[in-house]
Write a structure and sequence with these properties.
This protein has 147 residues and is an alpha/beta fold. The chain is built from six helices and four strands, in the order αααβαβαβαβ. A four-stranded parallel beta sheet has the order 1-2-3-4. α4 packs across α5 and α5 packs parallel to α6. The longest helix has 15 residues. The protein is elongated and about 60 Å long. About 4% of the residues have low confidence.
Length: 147
């Protein structure tokens, strides 16, 4: 019996993180593995997350100042079709600037995005349908900064 749901019924799991890949020197990796083996960290990922948080904590004041100066939304910014229709009906457009995660709901059509999003800058991750991303990208309005 086939129990697979049709694509239109499959629910997406909310994403709470973004996968990254890093290259680590052999000696650093060996030291990391030693700390994991000795129980200081549960696994490599725990070590890396802790190291990232410690670095960000050390720069917290600078990040706060930059977020304020650049007028960025810090955290999660989500846009639905209803949100964008309200913007369109008010004869306005959005200049989206997010540090974190920007999501554009699956019910947003490429045309609605074209009509309502004047620019988008995301430091972090952007989740949107491939069609919406394509519209924003081809109009040179999509800037997802990754290094």
């Amino acid at each position: 019996m086939n129990t697979k749901k049709p694509d239109s019924v499959v629910q997406r799991k909310p994403v709470d993180s973004e996968k990254i890949t890093i290259n680590v020197g052999f000696v650093d990796l060996g030291q990391l593995d030693l700390l994991v083996a000795e129980g200081f960290y549960g696994n490599r990922t725990d070590f890396i997350r802790t190291a990232i948080r410690n670095q960000l904590s050390g720069h917290a004041d600078t990040v706060k100042q930059l977020v304020a100066r650049k007028l960025l939304v810090l955290g999660l910014q989500h846009f639905t079709a209803n949100d964008l229709r309200a913007v369109r009906d008010a004869n306005q457009t959005l200049n989206i600037r997010v540090l974190g995660l920007a999501t554009i709901a699956d019910d947003v059509t490429p045309e609605l995005a074209r009509q309502t999003i004047a620019s988008i800058e995301v430091l972090g991750a952007l989740h949107a349908s491939p069609e919406v991303k394509a519209v924003l990208n081809t109009r040179n309005r999509l800037s997802v900064l990754r290094h």
